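A reminder from the course coordinator: this example appears on the midterm review sheet, so study it carefully.

Given structure:
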């Protein structure tokens, strides 16, 4: 049984608690700068140790195996690095860092300490993603030609103003790219492979009264395989729709929408498979945390298991960085 520590007791931490329990792990302690949140999560986790200083928690719980980092974006890299230097493996919420350079520092420390880092791109392991990946790799529909990723959500007002960290470059690191659509961008990379070139643009159109980061972005991505991807994301819609990914191959296409994978061959669209696991927490978080945390724990215990390693996960930050740098509209 692996023993875990959790830093950050906000909304996503409850998903981690449930996922750790589902995988037979034991939570030794939790930490949050707001003591009342730590107390509430500890009760849910079934542990009696709470902290407001994560460094103290790590120092006093050396028998733990894994540290889960569930804090705001700007704290991810420093906490992951400190945990590795203290001898722990790390499960790190997205984004893994504020930019690609910071993420590469996590890679460097992982190499020097020998500790593992799993980044929570959990949608890589849900059933629709795995099935689509298998179809592509099988060659049954021929070569992958193009991908389309669309994210249209609603975010405004209290979402930014009440968080204490969202909506600023210093603490969130970006807007719709770094937060709401990063999972979709990661899947474009996961399906498309190594990236050759990225061009894009960003804008702040609706939320300028509460945010300084982008709420709308678009990009074209060229992959070394010869495939291309088009991408559009916005927080300016009046409702939040399920993200959609279309994969166009030589002999047909695949569509992931609303937790269902569809296949189109000869003009006919049919359901291929669906994610029928119950989401933990918000529906947009999906059900993949259980699978990704389980896979990471298996790997720590020496079993053959795929998880999203930091060396692969940081690539999406390179894509995001290229969108910011090629945008004619510079927001910072």
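Designed residues:
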């Amino acid at each position: 049984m692996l023993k875990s520590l959790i830093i950050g007791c906000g909304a996503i931490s409850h998903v981690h608690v449930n996922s750790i329990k589902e995988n037979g792990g034991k939570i030794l302690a939790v930490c949050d700068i707001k003591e009342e949140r730590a107390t509430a999560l500890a009760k849910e986790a079934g542990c009696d140790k709470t902290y407001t200083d994560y460094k103290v928690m790590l120092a006093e719980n050396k028998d733990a195996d894994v540290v889960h980092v569930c804090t705001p974006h700007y704290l991810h890299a420093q906490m992951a690095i400190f945990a590795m230097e203290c001898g722990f493996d790390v499960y790190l919420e997205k984004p893994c860092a504020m930019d690609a350079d910071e993420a590469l520092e996590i890679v460097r420390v992982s190499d020097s300490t020998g500790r593992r880092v799993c980044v929570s791109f959990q949608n890589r392991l849900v059933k629709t993603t795995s099935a689509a990946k298998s179809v592509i790799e099988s060659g049954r529909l021929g070569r992958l030609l193009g991908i389309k990723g669309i994210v249209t959500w609603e975010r405004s007002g209290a979402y930014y103003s009440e968080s204490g960290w969202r909506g600023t470059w210093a603490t969130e690191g970006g807007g719709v790219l770094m937060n709401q659509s990063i999972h979709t961008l990661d899947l474009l990379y996961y399906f498309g492979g190594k990236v050759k070139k990225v061009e894009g643009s960003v804008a702040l159109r609706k939320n300028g009264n509460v945010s300084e980061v982008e709420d709308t972005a678009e990009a074209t991505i060229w992959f070394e395989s010869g495939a291309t991807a088009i991408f559009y994301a916005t927080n300016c819609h009046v409702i939040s729709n399920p993200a959609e990914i279309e994969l166009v191959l030589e002999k047909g296409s695949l569509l992931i929408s609303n937790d269902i994978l569809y296949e189109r061959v000869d003009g006919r669209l049919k359901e291929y498979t669906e994610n029928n696991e119950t989401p933990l927490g918000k529906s947009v978080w999906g059900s993949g945390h259980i699978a990704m945390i389980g896979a990471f724990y298996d790997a720590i215990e020496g079993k053959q298991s795929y998880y999203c390693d930091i060396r692969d996960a940081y690539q999406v930050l390179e894509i995001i960085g290229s969108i910011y740098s090629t945008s004619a509209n510079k927001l910072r």
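The chain has a mean pLDDT of 96. The longest helix spans residues 100-113.
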